[in-house]
Write a structure and sequence with these properties.
Four copies of one chain form a homotetramer.
Chain A (H helix, E strand, L loop, with lengths): L2 E5 L6 E7 L9 H12 L7 H4 L4 E5 L1 E2 L2 E2 L4 E6 L20 H8 L5 H7 L4 H16 L4 E9 L2 E2 L7 H10 L7 H16 L6 E8 L15 H10 L4 E6 L10 H4 L3 E4 L3 E4 L7 E2 L2 E2 L4 E7 L10 E3 L6 E3 L10 H24 L4 H17 L1
Antiparallel strand pairs in A: 1-2, 2-6, 3-6, 4-5, 7-8, 7-9, 9-15, 10-15, 11-12, 13-14, 16-17
Amino acid sequence: MLRYLTSGESHGKCMLTIVDGMPAGLVIDRAKIDAELSRRMQGYGRGKRMKLEADKVDILSGLRKSKTIGSPIAIMVKNIDHSIDRLPAVLEPRPGHADLTGILKHDLKDVRDVLERASARDTVARVAAGALAKILLGEFGIKIISHVTTIGTVEAETKGVEFSQIAMKAEKSPVRCADLAAAALMIKEIDKARSEGDTLGGIFKVLIKGVPPGLGSYAQWDRRIDGILAKAIMSIQAIKGVSFGMGFDVGSGRGSAVHDEIFYERTKGFFRKTNNAGGIEGGMTNGEEIVIQAVMKPISTLKKPLSTIGIRTKKRILASVERSDVCAVPAAAVIGEAVSAIEIANAMLEKFGGDSILEMRRNYKGYIEQVRKF
Amino acid sequence: MLRYLTSGESHGKCMLTIVDGMPAGLVIDRAKIDAELSRRMQGYGRGKRMKLEADKVDILSGLRKSKTIGSPIAIMVKNIDHSIDRLPAVLEPRPGHADLTGILKHDLKDVRDVLERASARDTVARVAAGALAKILLGEFGIKIISHVTTIGTVEAETKGVEFSQIAMKAEKSPVRCADLAAAALMIKEIDKARSEGDTLGGIFKVLIKGVPPGLGSYAQWDRRIDGILAKAIMSIQAIKGVSFGMGFDVGSGRGSAVHDEIFYERTKGFFRKTNNAGGIEGGMTNGEEIVIQAVMKPISTLKKPLSTIGIRTKKRILASVERSDVCAVPAAAVIGEAVSAIEIANAMLEKFGGDSILEMRRNYKGYIEQVRKF
Amino acid sequence: MLRYLTSGESHGKCMLTIVDGMPAGLVIDRAKIDAELSRRMQGYGRGKRMKLEADKVDILSGLRKSKTIGSPIAIMVKNIDHSIDRLPAVLEPRPGHADLTGILKHDLKDVRDVLERASARDTVARVAAGALAKILLGEFGIKIISHVTTIGTVEAETKGVEFSQIAMKAEKSPVRCADLAAAALMIKEIDKARSEGDTLGGIFKVLIKGVPPGLGSYAQWDRRIDGILAKAIMSIQAIKGVSFGMGFDVGSGRGSAVHDEIFYERTKGFFRKTNNAGGIEGGMTNGEEIVIQAVMKPISTLKKPLSTIGIRTKKRILASVERSDVCAVPAAAVIGEAVSAIEIANAMLEKFGGDSILEMRRNYKGYIEQVRKF
Amino acid sequence: MLRYLTSGESHGKCMLTIVDGMPAGLVIDRAKIDAELSRRMQGYGRGKRMKLEADKVDILSGLRKSKTIGSPIAIMVKNIDHSIDRLPAVLEPRPGHADLTGILKHDLKDVRDVLERASARDTVARVAAGALAKILLGEFGIKIISHVTTIGTVEAETKGVEFSQIAMKAEKSPVRCADLAAAALMIKEIDKARSEGDTLGGIFKVLIKGVPPGLGSYAQWDRRIDGILAKAIMSIQAIKGVSFGMGFDVGSGRGSAVHDEIFYERTKGFFRKTNNAGGIEGGMTNGEEIVIQAVMKPISTLKKPLSTIGIRTKKRILASVERSDVCAVPAAAVIGEAVSAIEIANAMLEKFGGDSILEMRRNYKGYIEQVRKF
């Protein structure tokens, strides 16, 4: 079982995660984790803050001579601006944030006590944990990528573009968009929103290739891999929707057009020619590419702030302005990869055991052969 | 903590759930649970099977003189057609179902071993558990309703319609749709699909009113109420997407237009005039109506079956045909209510404790007063 | 993952369990489960009640043609005396029971609301679940037995007696004691206590043979197999202590005398000649026989009742008398086997995966070979 | 819900814990946590290592201006000797440790990869987490103390000594023993064992005063507070047995002598004059003092090492000698307090909710009054 807790406030000492359950014998290249953190920081539309943070991980435990040993792995990313105790009180809760409910729930008198933890800065820890999961999945040839398909009103067109092409193009794009023309328009839309003191949201996809059939289960509701992935994605800050395969469009299709017929070739085994299901049927991975979409609302902190109520005065006032971004969909996509990686890795460990990478690989191979010979 | 397991196969003896964690002192009217099961069975577009099932619950444990006593509650619904051991083998896995992956995963040689459990018949147990949760929530004035907003290509228009109006209209509609004109078109679309041996999906909404602010938490990713609800909904058979508030449309809005400004009146406390967030901000309920959308794919079992591969012969063949429905979106909406009710009830118990309804109510009132006086 | 919930009141309709996570492909002989229930009912010192109950299981779900299919398995045992709603109120809480705290906790006005669920009758469900676990463990040559080592002041002497001898002798003994002379004295002690309206407790051991090394983990506190087993055993009604290997005597030994030196033979691999650790070191099974002791307090319901306080009158009164046993240590031993079996089965599934018995066996064999070749 | 993970190796950078679920509004005095760590380090019989470590906590997250804010709290304790990557391989697994099984389980070739995490050094993190729990419990007047009752063959006599006397005497004693005469003999026994290159174990008690009735539950096996506490205690390194109240002696008592009769006084409510149950009946706290005993085996690392097998050579050899202690029972007692505190705090949060200390206190008071007025 792979599980993790995170902690840390955005102006506290650091962001932190403890990841419990990684198998022994895996080489962990710290640069790979830093690279994921760097991918998370990028994206046209991020604010000044992003430049302040040059996040580097400090692996506090769980490795010996750069190898996992079966111990829990703790990863720390220091915050450069450690000012939480000195920062002034915030008394104007921002619409769209945890601010107001957070103080009501916890009986707090300063919104800062809430926003410091509710901040998407916490995703640093989730991305670090996800980077570990990706390294594990890499041992089994499982690849996880993401790309942005809409920002504001601009939609990308990527039908028919291959996984590897999408990966390459998105990685090069300042808005993580695999459609160059759309990317240019997205940048314009971001510039316009910024100049107007406004913010943008959008939609991204996470694609996962190389997953064996049979992760997750239909046997009990809480073991369904789509439910598990949906929880992981929906729990990313500002995400308001998640879907698989055709997503919400599946509702308007006919059964005869939507379901992916089954084919077989001796060398390949069972396979599909279409993937409307997005790689998941019956709460299980079916061996095809997993396709996840998620929608992110526009950033809730506006330079031209919304109207709110002062928590002491109970009078109308403009909401507090923390330094912030115009658009963070490209970053959210990277975070989406990370949290998906963790859940897939957990499902792999559940299915194949995982005290050592040797054992896990042996069990995995046995199963793959079993499926092939079915 | 409220937790539950279900069991049962669609042609086994019964469908079953054990619900652990209900507070003591709650009157359970069995007729209310039966009524929820009856709501689940209805909906234009269901097949003959639905007529066979006149589901009635048998409460096996957890009550004394019709009251909860703090014990786990077991609910059984008998299957009329208990033929699982006699039914013939199924060798043609249906696209869109758990069939193929299920046998590969579990090393089974008969698809029936899979489809019996993967069947949406299991939602009988979840609806029964949800009915208990609804009774508990009713003590706190929390109401959960649902309505169908699209079937196939027909979309309903319900902007501006009040909660109680939607409840009433949807309840009367054979397709659980609160827009009468659209409902008529939906029925036509279902008739057309049936005559063509095809199936339909669609979109439904679950609305929850009267939820206090502060259920869920931003403090740890897995405690976010939106993630928790998303998992519960996505784990319903055939659901491929879930969203809150504006749903996927939120991605194209501007921050200034999307976020719900905060207002205050002495008698009401803090409130909003808009509800684009769908009642959830920062992973917590904010006290406004919770609005969930979910998309259901068209039923995977087609009268005019899709092409597949025989699992013994490895040759192309038509998929197996189990008796089935043309469209089950209205039923899915009712199931959506049930699973949401369970998660909200659990969040209530987590926040307010729950050894007795007396204690839970006292703690709830104390908090509501605390929030009002904030 | 193997998990289970139980439900049921002692005079309710039935005792019930849902066991989630059993691998597919396992033949379940119902007679084996009935046999375990029968073992649980036996033991010199049980009251009349035991004769009333001829517990037979009804498997409600999870099997097809007597084989597991990966579905959750529900097992029901009907109560012959289903009178819970008609039985009179109990107003005199019995010392040693959940009675008093149960009503305070749950705001109940009738002790019967508590004692119906708190009753050890619930262990019927745990024994049924344990019987499934034993069948699974049997596939791997793992055997679980138990014997009673003390009842009241009578201690058995079984030093040097082999596992199979203990199993055979205990099984034949009316007090599940492998020392014939002690067994005779135990029976006398029980007779004496009965004639005096009093009750007895005692100590039993659970022995588990054939467990591979490496179940459990030192990596995180809550994954230690000794902690997990201790929780399972301590949660049996009336158990007040649990220990491994030398038990509490280990505290007075010297390190040089207590620890089990390590040996090696090419054919056997690593092994020990002593087993003071009781098969567990560092929170993991070490491949030697697991030895668990547990102490059971004397039955709390006395024919010659203790003094208590009437919950309405608040006056001193004699405690309520439910029909009961003089001594139930032999039964507790059987229950100890069951709950241990479940935890070991869960640890096996965690280590070896378990979607099918084919897969689990393959993974198990691979690991055993890996250990042998180390 | 209070939950925590720990990480860290004994010669790694640090020991770490993330504690999730502490209510907001609690003042955390870091000195109190340091004081608990200091208590853990003390005790006659500890080796040189203890002098090297002057453990001080670094609170990495979860506080603002020394107050909890509802965020997870991360606590780090640095290791002075951070040499894990440079330390030589260990090839001689020590009997009584995780050493041998650890390398077999994880496919490791160096015992050091195991012993670094399996080390009781991890209890630093558990004691830090426990210190937080103690601060929370202190708000409700709940006190947790411990004392050593046997070391080797020396037994203390503390019958009739009051809670506060035991606390005071144990705290002053170099062996945490409340019986001065016995303490002197224990010190002698330790000196003797040290001079002979041997080690000692013993028994300690944890006492918890001020716990309200009704924590835990009889309703489901895994919610019993005795099972939960037993798991927490048994998962401390080197603990081989745990019991409540009379412990294993309860097995030889008669029911009439063992159970604690119930009394009532208007001002006190229900109470007992005896406490053989150790404060737990029916899987719940009954409001009396919780009394836990645990036995610790002698330290497994001996100066005069045991015989073992070289993992490369497969030849007999003396076990590896890490610097170590002669006796650590006093330290284990402090750790026992910590892990018990965490579980009691979790049970309090479960019963009373816990988003803020204000709310938790209000709910607690409401319940206490409910119980008093019963």
